[in-house]
Amino acid sequence: MTGKLACRMWLAVSCAVAVTLLAGSDGALATPLGSISEYPVSALADAIDGGRAEIAAGPDGNMWFTAGSSIGEISPWTHQVADYYVGYYALPYGIVAGPDGNIWFTDLGTVRSIGEINPTTHAITEYPIPITGGNVYPNAYAIAVGPDGNLWFTENGTIPTIGEINPTTHAITQYPILDGTEPGGITPGPDGNLWFTLAASIAEINPSTHQIAEYPAAGATDIAAGSGGALWFTDGGSIGEINAFTHDILHYPTPTIPGVDGGPLLQAITEGPDGNMWFTATWNWFPAGGNPQVVGEIRPKTHRITEFRVPHARAVIGNYPEDVPFGIAAGPDGNVWFADGGTNPSIGVVGPALDKAVLSDLSMSPDGTVHMRLAAAISGRIDVLETAWRDNLAPSATAAATDLEPAPGRFVVARTSTRVASGGTVSLTIPPNTLGDRLIRRHRYRVTLRLWVVYAPAVGRTDTVGLYGLHVGGKCPAVTSRGGRMKATCA
What CATH superfamily is the domain 36-350? Predict the structure, then answer.
């Protein structure tokens, strides 16, 4: 009986083929783990006061940032930069993509307002923050989109306040913080509340009742939501984690770079496309001789912290370091972007994680041979296992029942193992074994294999990708592991 052969795959892969990548025991990483590139931005030059500049992904696929008296954008693919002047007395600070398709920002300038810019027409409109209840200087800092569709912001004025603005009516409402000072970063939490930092605590506000609750945590500056109900915040020289439901708080100190005196001053934090939390940090902001400034990441499961030096971090002009990484955000290109407002003003980008594998060019020839390419950043072993449904194997007087294992209802079609070097690519050709060859030649119905590929790097999360439906002459799409379990369907 003849017919077409089909296969399922997973990266781990679950097709009738499985692959396991086990990183080398030496734990060596590709060097560097994350490479940093920077693109000069002249508009950031007048943001040199403390280097404070924020960045966010826009709805148009570009990265938008605050830059002195302007709002800027950079294409993640062409790196073309443009900036749009807000006003002579303007000082944009926080920035976020709004629910209405516009880019929203806070303005610390003389106007003290909340602004928006249309990413297509670049038209800018600002809405002054009301001066109420003795709050003479309503300085808005960070801004975020709430679960109610409004924009929420922290306000560190005469009276510490949390504010919200309706993106349609532009009505602004303010909620004074009765016990707490210096509100900083703000983010929507997994519990439906808005979470923000204060000088001595992490706090949350219910968007419906406006009730505020605080949890002691001194020195927090910025906050971002991660996975598993956790919120992560920068806290002086450590990364903090608070559970949104139990309110338990943990701290993970950042390492001091060898040869550098003093500890870091952590700035912004965000969740990266790899599921890790990424942050910016400066060492002794204005030291004689200049200390390195870094972009770092912390892995939520292991709490391992890795830091990457910003290229020009040792140079100092006057009292200002040449690089001061501040705002940070995940980009649509799978990288992490940051705003650098030092004397070398630029927008930087860092490749987030090399503990991943790319599986491509997977196909099966008419004789049942499977072909694939797998690129990995960390050295390791590759194990491939193909399986198929045993009831599809045509009857044979010589076939032993035990040959149809390893799993109930399935048997091994092919298996292979090899090694992959750090940053290397291997091409695999996997012919079927005796039973697999017999299945291709004699089967009851269309054969469907299942391919599993498991990538377990020396450092990082184990990835599993499953591809289903690989047939004779068929192909599967390229898959890049992103941590955890993924599934894809072959053509």
Answer: YVTN repeat-like/Quinoprotein amine dehydrogenase (2.130.10.10)
